[in-house]
Design goal:
Structural class: alpha/beta
Strand content: 5-15%
Largest sheet: 6 strands, mixed
Radius of gyration: 24 Å
Strand order of the largest sheet: 1-2-4-3-5-6
Number of strands: 16
Distance between the termini: 47 Å
Shape: globular
């Protein structure tokens, strides 16, 4: 791995600091917050906030500025930002007229941003959101995750940003954003993989003469692999998928974006654009505006995408409206000039205050029972440290599993979360067990990022509520806490057993736990059955089709590969059962 970095764990904060120092119109809100916000904002204007995993620069921080976003929230590389970060972005974007969140259609982004909207409402900030899903390489579906949000998101930022700057209401800004989403389509291709800084090796391989059509911006597999061909042939294939999916016809006007994925020279992007323009001209389609460059990248991946946005007069006016965002500048005077309501204020730095993310209510712990162990905070912290070591030691294996079905970042994110839990060990040892669960939940949400962070965080918050006031847990109390966790994960992630997720390891373990207690089995036998159920559940994902997460974008839906999330969940159940069996019974 050759990268101009210092520590792989610091790439996001150091990148944002560098961006802010190059652009005096924005401010970096600090390490751990990872938000870029406008230094000056207009009071009474609808705020716009977007964000997502880092590694797609200049998205999203490069689009913060007058005429576009008011704040952008950065997650870890290829991982959704956590709710505490997003709430800070919402606060920085808020000028009293509400905040619109622009979300790309990934499970982690949707869960984290929507929860953040609920949390912001507790502080009196009105929010709404739109979801961008412009990638025609993926079939849209109400059952699966559906189409990905990729380069077309930049047009949504631009047009919604202009509408907000014009003084439109939150409902009006949302409406023009949704019109943009309904009329934008993107199709991409890749020629080489990328390397995540925390992983250090490519997430997939392509032969020297091979390209992948429909590749996602996180390295998710596309429609098919084929020999590399001419720019003309590539342009025809990308546009062909777009034309088959939308009603862009002769006489239409479109905005065109030829987007590089990070490792493709501008020379090649302009050659591709030349072919795109010739195809549009032959079809009688007018290219109203064309943008060529790196707008939504994938680290150093070589490749490109083509985006078409069908325009009407309203969308053209918003596209033409001036923008001062460093990565998408549009010059020109605005008719009538600035309104008298424009008022510059310093963007505040807020500390996250809300520890109580809404979670599904769980049944309280049952009565104390006579089983031979009691699990204290000290024990749980010991177990966490053992689990952290197991996850760390299996990094290469877990990464290989995730790279086969997703973007290869699961281990890096879950490992970072457990490293932070280990760092908080001394603090947690002195807490009651219910507070330990709450502390773990907040750390998971803030440190893991992505869908795993919100799912683990919400689950631990639910576990804390299931045993509120308890200093330690009995056998039955632990079972109740685990049941609260799986119930919350299933509700929040809209997942069920058999969907090839971490639920496939946790759910059968909880069911085995409940059945063993109800049948009166001893603790040792109970723990052995729980452990076996988790391991077997993870193994069963090999034959499942994924309908959640990035594996669902694959043609074969990940069949034949274990789910990385289920494997790391089985590690946790195994370590918990082994610790209790060795130390408490």
């Amino acid at each position: 791995m050759k990268k101009i970095i210092n520590n792989p764990n610091n790439v996001v904060s150091e990148m944002l600091q560098g961006l802010a120092k190059a652009n005096p119109a924005v401010v970096y809100l600090g390490e751990g917050v990872e938000v870029i916000a406008r230094r000056e904002k207009k009071q009474g204007k609808v705020g716009l906030v977007s964000g997502g995993g880092s590694g797609h620069e200049p998205a999203h921080a490069g689009y913060v500025g007058k005429g576009m976003l008011d704040a952008a929230v950065a997650g870890n590389v290829f991982a959704s930002p956590s709710p505490d970060r997003i709430v800070e972005g919402i606060k920085a974007a808020d000028s009293g007229a509400g905040v619109l969140m622009i979300i790309k259609n990934y499970s982690g982004d949707i869960m984290n941003f929507t929860m953040s909207g609920e949390m912001a409402a507790l502080d009196g900030i009105k929010t709404d959101y739109v979801v961008v899903k412009d990638d025609v390489a993926v079939e849209d579906s109400t059952y699966s995750t559906g189409r990905r949000g990729i380069a077309g998101t930049v047009f949504v930022h631009k047009i919604a940003g202009a509408a907000a700057e014009m003084g439109k209401s939150l409902a009006e800004v949302k409406a023009v954003a949704e019109k943009t989403i309904a009329n934008v389509r993107t199709m991409g291709m890749a020629m080489s993989p990328c390397i995540l800084p925390g992983v250090g090796k490519p997430g997939f391989t392509l032969a020297e003469d091979e390209i992948e059509i429909g590749m996602g911006i996180h390295g998710e597999p596309g429609i098919n692999r084929e020999p590399i061909s001419s720019a003309k042939d590539i342009a025809g294939k990308l546009l062909g998928k777009i034309f088959a999916d939308t009603d862009i016809f002769e006489g239409s006007e479109v905005a065109v974006m030829v987007n590089g994925l990070g490792g493709t020279p501008l020379m090649e992007l302009y050659i591709l654009n030349n072919e795109v323009q010739q195809i549009l001209e032959a079809k009688g389609i007018k290219a109203y505006k064309t943008f060529v460059g790196n707008y939504m990248t994938s680290l150093e991946m070589a490749g490109a995408s083509v985006t078409l946005l069908k325009l009407d007069d309203e969308l053209k006016a918003c596209l033409d409206y001036p923008s001062e965002a460093p990565a998408f500048q549009v010059a020109g005077a605005v008719a009538g000039g600035e309104t008298a309501a424009a008022q510059a204020v310093e963007a505040p730095v807020h500390a996250a205050q809300n520890d109580d993310a809404p979670v599904q209510a769980a049944a309280p712990c049952g009565d104390e029972d006579s089983t031979p162990f009691r699990l204290s905070a000290q024990d749980y912290v010991n177990y966490i440290n053992i689990t952290a070591k197991k996850i760390y030691e299996n990094g290469d294996y877990v990464t290989s599993l995730d790279a086969a079905t997703g973007d290869g970042d699961h281990w890096a994110n879950i490992n970072m979360g457990f490293e932070n839990l280990v760092a908080a060990s001394d603090e947690m040892r002195a807490m009651p067990i219910c507070d330990v669960f709450k502390k773990i939940g907040m750390l998971m949400m803030s440190k893991i990022g992505g869908s795993s962070g919100i799912l683990y965080g919400g689950a631990y918050m639910a576990a804390a509520r299931s045993c509120a006031g308890k200093a330690e847990l009995t056998n039955r109390g632990l079972c109740n806490a685990l049941e609260a966790m799986v119930s919350d994960m299933m509700a929040r992630g809209k997942a069920e057993p058999g969907m090839k997720t971490m639920i496939d390891a946790l759910y059968p373990a909880v069911q085995a736990y409940k059945a063993a207690i109800e049948s009166g089995k001893g603790a040792a036998e109970t723990l052995a059955e729980v452990k076996k159920a988790a391991v077997d559940g993870a193994e069963a994902t090999r034959g499942m089709e994924a309908v959640k997460g990035r594996a669902s974008y694959q043609t074969n839906k990940g069949v034949g590969h274990l789910d990385a999330g289920a494997v790391t969940m089985s590690y946790q159940i195994e370590c918990l059962c082994d610790y209790i069996a060795a130390n408490l019974i």
